[in-house]
Structure formats: C-alpha cells, structure tokens
Amino acid sequence: MSIPAPAPELMPAYPASWFLFGLASEFRRGPVSRDLLGQRLVAFRTASGKPVVLDARCAHLGADLGEGCVIGEEVQCAFHNWRYKPDGRCSSAPNAPEAAWARLRSYPTVERHGYLFFFNGPEALFPLPFFEDAEPGAYVVARPLRFYAACPWYLVNGNSFDVQHFRSGHGRELIGEPVIDCPHPFARRNRLTLRNVGDSVADRLLRSLLGDRVCVSMTNWGGSVVVVTGDFRSTRSNLITFIEPIDRERCFLNVLVYAQRGRIGRLFDHLRLWLRRRFTNSFMAEEFQMLAGIRYHTGCLVESDRPMIDYFQWLTHLPRGAPAAAAPAADRPYSLPLSLCEERVP
User: Fold this and answer.
1) Helix (H, G, I), strand (E, B), or coil: what is residue 141?
2) Same domain for 256 and 144
C-alpha cells in the first residue's frame, strides 16, 4: 500500500538557504559571474575587502556585470558605466540621473576556508552551517568534489533519510533504529549506526583500519546543505555537501571534505585530506551511479520510505528563495510547523 507524499510542485525549486559560489580567489582581480539557481549572479571584492554577491544583469539593458570592473566599494557595468553598491543600489548612472530607482538583488555572503558562500534570500535565516561545537579555524578542507545528477535535487539530499539504500547500495547494515529530529527550526537530522558489510576493496580496507561500525549524523540545513559526521573506532570523518539545482530535473552536488588541523604540520594535514577525499569520492561516485535518472513518484512510496516522506514534507514548508519567491520579510519571522520538528524514531 502506497503512502501519501507531497506533490513535486510543492518542493522549492531553489531553497532559501546557503550555496557555494566558488573559490574566493577567482574574483581577486575583478568581478566574476556565474549561472546559479536559474539566474546570473556576480561576485566581487570591494576595495575594503568585503565579498559581495549581486544579480549580475545590469538594471539598464541587462549587461553582465561580470564583464565590468570594481571601483572602490562598487561594481561598474562595462556597457554604460552604471555603478552598484554592495546592497545592490545604483549609485551612479551617467547621463541618467532619473535611474536612482535602479536596484539589484543582493545576497548575504560568508567567506570560509578560501570559498565564497551566499544565502539565497535578502537575509540569512540561519548561519552558514558547520560541525556542531566546532571552530572552522581548527579545520582544513580539500578541494571540492563535484557530481552531476539527472534527477531532482531533493532526491539527492533525500538519500540522507533513505535508510534502505545504505544496505542495498553501499553494503552498510543498520544497527538499531535511526533517530530523526530537528535541532534547529531550519534543520532536520538523521542519526544512525551502521555496520560495514561491503565486499569492495575500499570496504575491506576501512574495516581493517577503522573497524566495522560507524555512528553517522546527517543534518540537512534549509534543504540545500548537509553536514555529515561519521564516528569510527579511532577517528571522525567530516564533510559538508552543497546542492546546486540546475532546474527541476537536474542538479550538481559539491562536496567539501574536512579534517582537523594536526600537530605534525601542513604536509601531514594534506595527506590525511587526500586519503579522506579519495575514500569519499569512491563512496559518492557509487552513489551517483545509482541516482542516474531516478524520479519522484508520489504514488509509489511505501511505509519503509516514511523517514524520507517526512523529509519531503518538511521541505515543502521551507521558504522559497530567489528567483521563485522572496524570503519572508524581516518583520515576519518564519517558523516551521511544530509537527515537522518533533523528534521521530521510526
């Protein structure tokens, strides 16, 4: 018997959440524009060092601000020299004083570990996620892994709550029951213990080095960010994924693998990161082979899919980001229904 699930059109096309723009060094010498979340965005660094993300199309004739230049605290369009402040307001339009109305959308930004992140909305509804009770400065990060999936973005992140596929797809056996809760109004977490019963070379090597059990915590923030920790016998694995929807049926996933700074030195830190990134790449590549072409069929989900259905239901109550809709106004705080934030043990 199938279990009712929310219609796909109820899922946010582009959640009001955090996304990875790219390397901060990319716009060191001038503005850089990219197609992200169904629109063109531009990033630049002001003369005072502030990172800025704006809509990239000039309000005048739509020229790409990524082809312009930075002058002081503003970005200037190359086509007619219209200038924009970090808040998106047009400060100067030569021969067009009446253009004071012109304003572009601006996005909250955070620079961390050499990467630029932006929030898809006028104000960040929650801080850029990181590992619980951890200081970012105590960690180093590897260059991102990037995967393409020909499926809706919410099915990729829904895997965190698809307990069945860990055994069938990854050779991981569930020990006990998962514990699902909401540690924050915009976060949904799944905690579970898995036994490594896989037969691959990587699985056998992991068992010999780290034991056969791992306690995993996967926290989805705002729909787009998943913070993952895996506690093995003698070490902890840390990674954060950032989804990048292309459209309703395609997406990219950016995976950042982290390690705590060691006492031996940078060379040893890089070696540890290389090993962790290699194992993560092997695991994720296998995952994305399985994801190829999967579709969301609301009438085909069953009772064992309940944790994933509850996750999809939670997603439908999240605010939409640009360009689909603006985030809630600052004077109207957004909150999720309490029923979706109660702890659940399936």
Assistant:
1) strand
2) yes
> What is the C-alpha to C-alpha distance for residues 131 and 276, in angstroms, rounded to an integer?
17
| Residues 55, 105 within the same domain | yes
Largest Cα separation within the chain, whole Å, is 72
211 token code pair: 């034991």
- For 46, residues 6+ apart whose C-beta sits below 8 A from its C-beta are 52, 70, 72, 73, 74, 86
Question: Do 146 and 22 fall into the same domain?
Answer: no
Query: Which residues have a Cβ under 8 Å from the Cβ of 290 and sit 6 or more positions away?
Result: 165, 169
Q: Which two tokens stand for residue 297?
A: 């069929």
Overall average pLDDT of the 88-99 stretch: 86
| Domain extent at residue 178 | 136-310
CA atoms within 13 A on the CB side of 152: 18
Dump pLDDT digits (tens) for 2-38: 678 999 999 999 999 999 999 999 998 899 999 999 9
Question: What are all long-range contacts of 85-92, with beta carbons under 8 Å and residues at least 24 apart?
Answer: 86/46, 86/50, 86/52, 86/54, 88/54, 88/55, 90/59
Share above pLDDT 90 across residues of the chain, in percent, rounded to a whole number: 62
d(CA 167, CA 144): 26
Nearby residues of 280 by Cβ (< 8 Å), 6 or more positions away: 145, 237, 239, 255, 257
DSSP state of 143: P
Q: How many domains does the chain have?
A: 2
**Angle at which helices 266-291 and 201-210 cross, to 10°:** 140
Q: Please state whether beta strands 69-71 and 51-55 pair in parallel, antiparallel, or not at all (unpaired).
A: unpaired
**150, 265: one domain:** yes
Give the length of the chain.
346
Spatial neighbors of 83 by CB under 8 A, at least 6 apart, are: 71, 74, 75, 76, 77, 90, 91, 92, 93
Q: What pLDDT was estimated at residue 233?
A: 86
